[in-house]
């Protein structure tokens, strides 16, 4: 009950009038909140996964880590031109993963309306990195 109340009161209420059609959850903890938010908003849930975890044809976006690179993958056709997306993750630090998620969704034709992260490490300025 507490989990559902927190979803309803803190997240769904904020996004209910934004006409969200897709909630994209970043692996792994974006999968905890994303499906519940999608269900409450009558939107579809799209998982954004680490490399080589999705079957079938995928598109990907690479991003820089402290010591190398990584990428996020999404199924081809998971979002459509004109979809209105909400990106969900547990934490934003440097913003690399979140920025990659935004680019991936936009490249597939979605408009990213907003991002929802439960925790931010403000000293690392990740939300600033993704706001452009």
Automatic annotation (TrEMBL):
Superkingdom per UniProt: Eukaryota
Gene3D superfamilies tied to this protein: 3.40.50.2020
MF terms (GO), sorted A to Z: adenine phosphoribosyltransferase activity
Pathway membership: Purine metabolism; AMP biosynthesis via salvage pathway; AMP from adenine: step 1/1
Role: Catalyzes a salvage reaction resulting in the formation of AMP, that is energically less costly than de novo synthesis.
Key words of the record: Cytoplasm, Glycosyltransferase, Membrane, Purine salvage, Transferase, Transmembrane, Transmembrane helix
Group of enzyme by EC: transferase
GO biological process: purine ribonucleoside salvage
SUPFAM superfamilies associated with the record: PRTase-like
PANTHER family: ADENINE PHOSPHORIBOSYLTRANSFERASE, PHOSPHORIBOSYLTRANSFERASE DOMAIN-CONTAINING PROTEIN
Protein name from the UniProt record: adenine phosphoribosyltransferase
